[in-house]
Amino acid sequence: MTNGLPPLKELKEWKALEAHYEKLRGTHLRDLFAADAKRGEKLALEAAGIYFDYSKHRVTAETINRLCDLAEAAGLREKIEDMFTGEKINLTEGRAVLHTALRAPKNATVVVDGENVIPHVHAVLEKMEEFAEKVRGGHWKGHTGKTIKNIVNIGIGGSDLGPVMAYEALKHYSQRGLVFRFVSNVDGADFAEAVLDLDPAETLFIVASKTFTTQETMTNAETARDWALRALKDKAAIAKHFVAVSTNAAKVSAFGIDTDNMFGFWDWVGGRYSMFSAIGLSTMIAIGPKYFREMLAGAHEMDEHYRNAAFEENIPALMGLLGLWYNNFFGAQTIAVLPYEQYLKRFPAYLQQMTMESNGKRVTVDGRAADYQTSQVYWGEPGTNGQHSFYQLIHQGTKLIACDFIAFSKTHHKLGRHHDLLMANVFAQAEALAFGKTAEELKTEGVKDWLIPHKTFEGNRPSTTMLLDELTPAALGRLVALYEHSVFTQGMIWQIDPFDQWGVELGKVLAGRIAPELESAAEPELKHDSSTNALIRRYRASAGR
Ligand code: F6P
User: Fold this and answer.
1) N or C: which end of the chain has fewer CB within 10 A?
2) In 3D, which of 321, 271, 274 has the Cα closest to residue 101?
3) What are the φ and ψ backbone dihedral angles of 455, each rounded to 5 degrees?
4) 38 is annotated as an active-site residue
5) Would the CB of 210 count as within 6 Å of ligand 1?
6) Strand, coil or helix: what is 112?
């Protein structure tokens, strides 16, 4: 398999960036801002409802041009078109990659294997809407005739992180009479705590799994079925208390869920790109079809921007390129995602799967070991909490960490000074990181000499500030699509397949082998390494086996 391109580091555009980096690496943001009074306005873009200020990055106009040249040389423009038009760009799995089709309008055409997929997308959306309205309206009754009030989504990875992130992000728009819980971990505590105060007669489980074979999800779903049937005492209750979201109708029906109560999607929707598909059923029940459609429209707006804008004016392309600039030239290892919006508290966790399961690859699509870094580590917490936790390291530690600040001009809660203070903090952090505080400034403030090194902030720490109007469903759609396309931009330049995830397989296989060794009554013959063998023996002994 080949992508038809020379190795990345042999591209002349890459070499030009290496040379450019050597010239720019010592330049301070203080000097870049001093050299151009309008830098803060010039190095900012506005599209699809996002004001994207990248002026506090260690770049010049030349850097941006050279990064965009690299994107062109890497064939990004054609690859974007290939993705949008349903080419099988997930090379190792031979699949199209069409999360963008999930938010395309009804009159769009996207052909996969000779068939337009858009009517299928909209048929599922309509089925979801009908079901969501029934639950929201109190018309979906449980087996005993009680109204369903609790919705428990059982899924893991993309079948959990998107739903829980979107529920938290859009709680303000949710129907407050309904209770939503999300169970993902195979640790029984997750299920036990989620249902502790719920009445089975009023509870609906959404079993969300693309494959319907994932060990954690199937274990939780079986436990949920036992829990419900223990109380409801009739197998017929499953039809009222369980629905499935999956691509695997045979497994759904083998589990006992009527496929009439199944919401389908397709192999061209990756797990970590699935929150706009039927995997978003819990989101739609929470916020209702109208807001769900607005979220899709927001994502579509970002899709159009990514597909059509020149790279220099293309927010997702620039975001991806800036990340690559620090990753591959400055040697930075991580990116902090710092939303100044409490409702986005699960957004960094959601992005971890999207970014790292996508681009955490060490070989290129043609099987060569990449001789350059691929995905950064993504992490973060909402501001201002992070400021009183790990920001110290970002400000004064020895590591270079580029930050994504995400903020909203409007709040859902106008409470005294809260929002002004929140915004003052986000602007202040980006300013402090970029400009720091010099020894001279400290001296003029009368700080004692011996304390000056400790109180000095060297600055020159890069960040993007994304300013949006308000955290609406559309804004969330735009933000998610922005990061998706930034990940795509990087993956294409790194010549990897961002849409497979072979790296999670080995652990699954080994867990499948170890589970019976933990559970068997007879002493198993252990053939692992000495560490794993000893751990298994210790566990068996403490479990009395
Ligand atoms: O972690 C591996 C993975 O396949 C993810 O890509 C996916 O989102 C998750 O497991 C859950 O898979 P499924 O939806 O098939 O249960």
Assistant:
1) N
2) 274
3) -95, -5
4) no
5) yes
6) strand
CA 416 → CA 341, 344, 382, 388, 471, distances in Å? 16, 21, 20, 22, 19
DSSP for 20-33, please give it: HHHHHTT--HHHHH
Return the HEC string of 355-383: HHHHHCCCECCCCCECCCCCCCEEECCCC
Residue 501 near ligand 1, beta carbon < 6 Å? yes
Tell me the per-residue pLDDT of 374-429, one tens digit each, with 9 for 90 and over. Answer: 999 999 999 999 999 999 999 999 999 999 999 999 999 999 999 999 999 999 99
Q: CA–CA separation, 274 vs 468, rounded Å?
A: 24
Catalytic residue among 46, 508, 519, 523: 508
pTM: 0.97
Which spans in 52-117 are helix H?
61-73, 76-84
- What are the distances in angstroms from CA 224 to CA 25, 138, 191, 258? 56, 22, 8, 16
Measure the N-to-C terminal CA separation of the chain; round to a whole number of Å.
49
Q: Kindly state the helix (H) or strand (E) to which residue 204 belongs, with its residue range.
A: strand 203-208
DSSP state of 56: T
- The residue count for the chain: 545
